[in-house]
Specification:
six-stranded antiparallel beta sheet; 2 domains; Aminoglycoside 3'-phosphotransferase, Chain: A, domain 2; globular; alpha+beta; Phosphorylase Kinase, domain 1; 45% helix; three-stranded antiparallel beta sheet
């Protein structure tokens, strides 16, 4: 095998991780990490001249081949979500999610089946997205068993219990950035769903970042989840990202009603309880709103989270941009 050439690093990934000393150190080591995995797993880079590898928020994905078979090498910035991703992929074993071929915990690297990066649920009609997402959610909602991977995941109920303490403290510290009633609506969800989650016996493996961009087409047909953020708990916790993405696809005549209809439609397609999904989505967006309020240059994201959360609570806040003027996440 010939020595691997340097793989170009996408500029937006470099910009994102150049802001901290830890990020700069990781960027400085990234070529070595990639080359080490290419050699260890006997891979060839499969990039056209001038082509950049793919990247998300937390890592780079290099198209490769192994003995002529297409695959994808993912090297992630070390963080909690990246460290547990491989455990969920092992449990799913290619059923509803991208298949894991190899993994290395020390370098936060994985070799994955190659999916079609140019075809995700962001571009398909919403009716198709509902059907695909519902079917995949049914596949991914595994019931815990005795395999050791299950010990690696946090519980949704524990997250709710943590929010019960953190949300009011953050709300006060940030100068009460939205009305108290919306905070109290989220706290009620945390208290009720947290208690139910502890005693309900409905635990499954939950992909908590299961939105349109994280579902790619398989070349042979069908779709698969990528970049999971796995937890254990009620499957309804996974609906929220579908609501805060593709807001501009909601009906202009009544986007608020359209948001609630979307929650019901995706829930029904996956066999979930739409009311429980609404509750979890409300709490998750209030937590998102406080995160955005704590950081500069996120006014548009804060407005989007407040619109979604308050609309799900039944009292859309005034003073916010119209739904179709809200920015998409990451914009």
């Amino acid at each position: 095998m010939k020595p691997p050439a340097d793989v170009p690093i996408p500029p937006d990934l470099s910009r994102r991780y150049s802001r901290t000393s830890g990020g700069r150190a990781w960027l400085g080591s990234l070529q070595g990490l990639i080359c080490g995995r290419l050699e260890r797993w006997d891979l060839e880079v499969d990039l056209e001249p001038g082509q950049l590898p793919w990247n998300g928020h937390g890592g780079v994905v290099v198209p490769v081949t192994r003995k002529g078979v297409p695959a994808a090498l993912k090297v992630a910035y070390p963080h909690d979500e990246a460290r547990v991703e491989r455990f969920a992929l092992r449990l799913w074993d290619g059923q509803g999610a991208v298949r894991l071929l190899e993994s290395d915990a020390g370098t936060c690297s994985m070799l994955l089946e190659r999916l079609d990066a140019g075809c995700c649920l962001q571009q398909v009609p919403m009716e198709t997205a509902v059907e695909v997402w519902g079917g995949l959610t049914r596949q991914l909602s595994l019931i815990p068993d005795q395999r050791p991977e299950w010990q690696e995941f946090h519980h949704v109920a524990a997250r709710a219990e943590q929010w019960s303490d953190d949300l009011p403290a953050d709300w006060e510290q940030l100068g009460r950035p939205f009305p108290r009633w919306l905070l109290e609506a989220a706290l009620e969800v945390c208290q009720t769903r947290g208690a139910v989650g502890r005693r309900g016996g409905t635990d499954v493996l939950v992909n908590t970042d299961f939105h349109y961009l994280n579902i790619l087409a398989r070349p042979e047909g069908g779709f698969a989840a990528i970049d999971p953020q796995p937890m254990i708990g009620e499957a309804e916790f996974s609906v929220a990202p579908l609501l805060w993405n593709r807001i501009r696809d909601l009906p202009r005549s009544n986007p608020g009603r359209g948001l609630l209809d979307r929650c019901r439609e995706f829930s029904a397609a996956a066999g979930l309880d739409a009311e429980v999904a609404r509750q979890w989505s409300l709490a998750r967006e209030v937590e998102n709103a406080l995160w955005y309020a704590s950081r500069p240059l996120h006014d548009g994201d804060l407005a989007r989270s407040l619109w979604v959360a308050s609309t799900l609570a039944g009292r859309t806040l005034g003073g916010l941009p119209a739904a179709h003027d809200l920015p998409a996440p990451g914009k």
